[in-house]
Structures are given as C-alpha cells and as structure tokens.
Amino acid sequence: MISVKHLSKTYHNTDGSTVTVLKDVNCEISKGEAISVIGGSGTGKSTFLRCLNLLDTPSSGEIVFEGENILQKGYPVHKLRQRMGMVFQEFNLFEHMTVLENIVLVPRLVLGLNEEEARSEAMYLLRKVGLAEKADAMPSSLSGGQKQRVAIARALAMHPEVILFDEPTSALDPTMVGEVLSVIRDLAREGMTLLLVTHQLKFAREISDRIFYMQDGVIFEEGTPQQIFENPVHSSTKAFVRQIRRAVFEVGSPDFDFQGMYSSLAQFCHKYNVSEKMSCVKKLCNAMLDGPMATHYPMTVRLSHSELTEESFLDFMVEKLDVSPLSDASEEFMSGLRSLTADIIEESTSRGFRVRLIL
Q1: Beta-bridge partners for 5
Q2: Which of 24, 224, 290, 305 has the fewest CB atoms below 10 angstroms from its CB?
Q3: Over the range 108-138, which residues count as b (16 or more CB within 10 Å of their CB) and which as e?
Q4: How many CA within 13 A on the CB side of residue 213?
Q5: Is the peptide bond before 292 cis (omega within 30 degrees of 0)?
Q6: Are the C-beta atoms of residues 296 and 288 closer than 8 Å to each other?
Q7: Phi, psi at residue 44, to the nearest 5°?
Q8: Stretch 85-110: mean pLDDT
Q9: SS3 at position 63
C-alpha cells in the first residue's frame, strides 16, 4: 500500500542553521497492517507521520501510495488527506460546534454527502467509539479521552484507507488512556491499516503486526513484536524496549524534604500512567520510614517502573548494612506490608542491603 524510499527531512532555521530530522527512511507498509512506531524523543517519529500525510514536505526521497508517487509535482494533496486520515496529540475539535456537527462538517463539504447521510454515518461512528449519547454535547463538556474518541470518529468519517495516530494518548490524563486505546485496538482487529506513534510499549506489542524502532532519524530496526521486544538485533533497541524508569531520592536524615519527595513521586506516577499506584506508594513510604527504616539514615529510596511489563517496585537501600531492616519488624507490621504489595524481596547487595516492595 505504501512504499517509502530514502525519505529525508531537513528544517532550515531563521539563523541559517539546519536540523535534519529524517535521514534515510525506508519501509514498506501493506494493506491491513497495524504498525507501531517507537523510539525516544527527537528521533523523527512524528515527522515521519507528518511527511506521509504531506503536512510536512519531505526534503528528498519517495513516497508511493497505492502506486502513485505523492511527492510528484501536481499531486492532489486534498485527495491524499481523504484517503489517509490523521489523529493528533491534541484534539483540534471546533469548539463552537456540537460533537455531531464536528463529524458531519467535512464529509458534507468534501464527500458531498447530504445532511441525512452525513448525520446517519456520524451517529454510526459515535456508537462505534461509545459516544452516541454525546452527539449534541459541546466539546468543552467532554473529557480529554472523549474528545480524542470524537477526533477518531471524525477521521473515520472520511472513509480513509489508512489512519495515522501521532501519540494519541500523550495529552490525556492517565485515567482516560484506556478508553482511547480500546478504540484503536478495535480498529486494528477490524483490519484497518494504521501507523501508531506511541510510548505505550505494552499496547504496541499487543496490537501491532510489526514494530518500527526509530533512532537518529532512521528506522533503526523493524520486526514482529516478538522479535523487537524479546530478541532485538541491536543493543540500542534492547536498551530502549527494556528501559526502566526511575525516581531516586537520597535521604540523608529525618529532616529530609519528604513532602517534596512525595510531590516528585506523584509527578513520576502521572508521567508514566501509574497514578493509581501513588496512594499505595505513599502508604508504603510512610510505613517504612516511620517504622523499620527510621534508624537507618542515610538511605536511598527509589521508585522504578517498567513500561513494557507495567511492573513497579519501591526500593529502600542502606549501605554497609548486612541484615534486613525488616528482621525485627513485628508480624502485625509485616502483615500490613503484605496487604499493600504483591511481593517483598529482602536481599544483600555489594553495597549493603535492599528491601524491594513489588507493587
């Protein structure tokens, strides 16, 4: 369906300098494939999607869509946009129109549908994304997740052959991510051709036929989800998919800024979509710091989270300690600790002793 060869994109700054975001992108995309594009910030993922849809004009290379080179002079870009829909990080809804009017507008103007046809199609799509009851609501009354589902319905209203998703959940509160991913999951199951730029690695693994890992402006490695996540060829790919996010605090005394630490922990949980774990994290910190760890300063407190496995764990580490801080804890205390954790690991390290609480 889509063939990309030697695609590059260079931006020219006002000061005369240049930034090359895409260097030499090559790929083939077949009809009905669901492909997730992953990689670190600034690796060219969003620019790649924008070039496919000609929102950004490539500097060089070739994009062939259904047998036509869309970069040739005179190619009708408006027709490409009908066939290749795009859903952005931001929702871009018309705030002065109802949900239904947002979906009906472009099919009437571009596809020439009459009012009845357009409204019927729009209601079908709203039911598809679970928002039929919001047809007459204004966008300002919707949650972020609901707005993004309306944006997806609006893209589908043009009957596209391909949909490009550019970080569709990055602007959402973590509690709303699931409802948008559910709609995308259904589209993939139905055989819609889609390219998804995402940081949701577990979701990418679940829905994708193939994964593109981008680094330094190129598709550095591609393969099936099993290959990319379990047996990547390159060490940099392995490091990215297995990365564990961490928030680390060196607690030197009882006078440490614990309120600041809790604020940073809350920000960490929000950033990595595990806000529901924050209450448990705070209870465990309070229990440990007021209990077994109260006499073990200095210590290191570390919250870690794996985006791929979605496992989180809270570590309390004390240097030059050869016994567990929990060795003298009461059975009542340990019972309370177990009720808040999936597992408790007490282990000696080369530096001292660590208590790891699996959330």
Answers
A1: 62
A2: 290
A3: beeeebeeeebbebbbebbebbebeebbeeb
A4: 22
A5: no
A6: no
A7: 100, 10
A8: 90
A9: strand
Host H or E run for residue 145: helix 144-156
3-class state of residue 330 by DSSP: coil
- pTM of the entire structure? 0.78
pLDDT at 200 exceeding the cut of 90: no
Q: Are 58 and 254 in contact (CB under 8 A)?
A: no
The CA-atom distances, in angstroms, between 186 and each of 18, 64, 128, 145, 182 are: 41, 27, 9, 16, 6
82 and 191 co-located in one domain: yes
Q: How far apart are CA 37 and CA 266, in angstroms?
A: 28
Domain boundary, last residue among 226, 241, 256: 241
- CA distances, 279 to each of 173, 174, 191, 358 (Å): 17, 15, 40, 14
With tokens 């600790």, the residue in question is 337
How does pLDDT run across 112-158, given as a tens digit for each residue?
A: 888 899 999 999 999 999 999 999 999 999 999 999 999 999 999 99
